[in-house]
């Protein structure tokens, strides 16, 4: 598992694994940010992403486990990292299936899981 901080546009083509079972890197845009950074590879699975949540007059940015995100949720989380919230980057965590221990990654990601009564768990 590894983490990258990137400016948008990322230059990553994501594809849904299965509905509700996450997204993976299908391809990189040639010459795009991810391609030139050289860390992300096709086949890597998105397991965490920073996102912004606005509740009333307050906002919060936090890392969210993304293993079970559908495509739209993953893209929405990435897109929420906007300059108006003082975000100049998006932080992404990836799992490389050929090298990772998925159970250990899941145990690590539990740290980032919002509590049940947290606004991150409530529908907008």
TrEMBL record:
Gene3D superfamilies: 2.30.42.10. It comes from the Eukaryota. Pfam families: PDZ. Residues 1-56 form the PDZ domain. InterPro entries: PDZ, PDZ_sf. This is PDZ domain-containing protein. It comes from Fragilariopsis cylindrus CCMP1102.
């Amino acid at each position: 598992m590894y983490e990258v901080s990137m400016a948008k546009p990322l230059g990553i083509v994501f594809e849904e694994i299965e509905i509700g079972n996450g997204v993976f890197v299908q391809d990189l845009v040639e010459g795009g940010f991810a391609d030139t950074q050289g860390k992300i590879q096709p086949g890597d699975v998105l397991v965490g992403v920073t996102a912004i949540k606005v509740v009333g007059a307050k906002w919060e940015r936090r890392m969210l486990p993304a293993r079970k995100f559908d495509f739209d949720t993953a893209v929405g989380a990435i897109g929420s990292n906007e300059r108006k919230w003082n975000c100049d980057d998006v932080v992404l965590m990836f799992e490389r299936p050929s090298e990772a221990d998925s159970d250990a990654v899941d145990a690590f990601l539990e740290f980032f899981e919002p509590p049940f009564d947290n606004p991150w768990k409530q529908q907008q």
